[in-house]
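Title: Comparing notes on inverse folding

I've been comparing how different people in this forum approach sequence design from structure. To keep things fair, I'm posting one structure and asking everyone to reply with a full sequence. Here's the target:
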């Protein structure tokens, strides 16, 4: 993996398209939360890039917090078990909360997370995800902000990993089959 380029099948969403979409989402969030006190919650580790760019594209005042949950481990398939690795530092009772995610795939992580956050009595909980895969549409979670609906392929880059690698690519790409061919 010395050269990430060899592990890439193709670029699915180039950097400029990602950045343009994030500005568009930020504009909607600015308008929807104008005059409100908003806490944006990034889901570690995948959402790091989206949070960093989205937060800088917003004009409203926000607080930022992080939760770490993991359902995938090292593979390309969801294990079905969501674990909290780090909880919020913030008490969200009475607060407007916007969860920021990189991708909704099976929907398992977010349906669990939203349920968990709603039990803390916040004023509201909404979701912003950069990417959404087809299976997620079957899960009964309301997603207020979606960047791109993408096909059912394993994607990497811009926060998304395969076995913890490729998060630092500035675009979204698909992984060459030789990298995970054994699975
Ligand atoms: C990935 C991704 C989402 C979740 C989506 O996280 O970042 O959080 O899976 O999958 P789902 O809709 O099928 O639940 P992962 O568990 O790999 O942890 P990571 O963010 O640290 O990579
Ligand atoms: Mn994640
Ligand atoms: Mg992952």
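Reply #1:
Here's my take.
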């Amino acid at each position: 993996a010395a050269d990430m380029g060899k592990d890439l099948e193709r670029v699915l969403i180039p950097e400029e398209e990602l950045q343009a979409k994030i500005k568009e989402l930020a504009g909607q969030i600015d308008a929807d939360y104008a005059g409100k006190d908003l806490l944006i919650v990034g889901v570690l580790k995948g959402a790091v890039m989206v949070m960093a760019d989205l937060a800088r594209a917003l004009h409203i005042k926000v607080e930022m917090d992080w939760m770490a949950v993991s359902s995938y481990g090292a593979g390309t398939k969801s294990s079905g078990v969501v674990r909290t690795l780090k909880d919020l530092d913030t008490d969200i009772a009475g607060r407007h909360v916007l969860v920021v995610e990189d991708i909704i795939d099976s929907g398992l992580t977010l349906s669990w997370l939203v349920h968990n956050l709603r039990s803390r009595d916040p004023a509201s909980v909404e979701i912003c995800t950069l990417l959404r895969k087809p299976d997620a549409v079957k899960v009964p979670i309301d997603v207020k902000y979606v960047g791109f609906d993408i096909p059912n392929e394993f994607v990497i880059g811009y926060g998304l990993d395969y076995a913890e690698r490729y998060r630092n690519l500035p675009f979204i790409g698909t992984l060459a089959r030789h990298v995970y061919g054994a699975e």
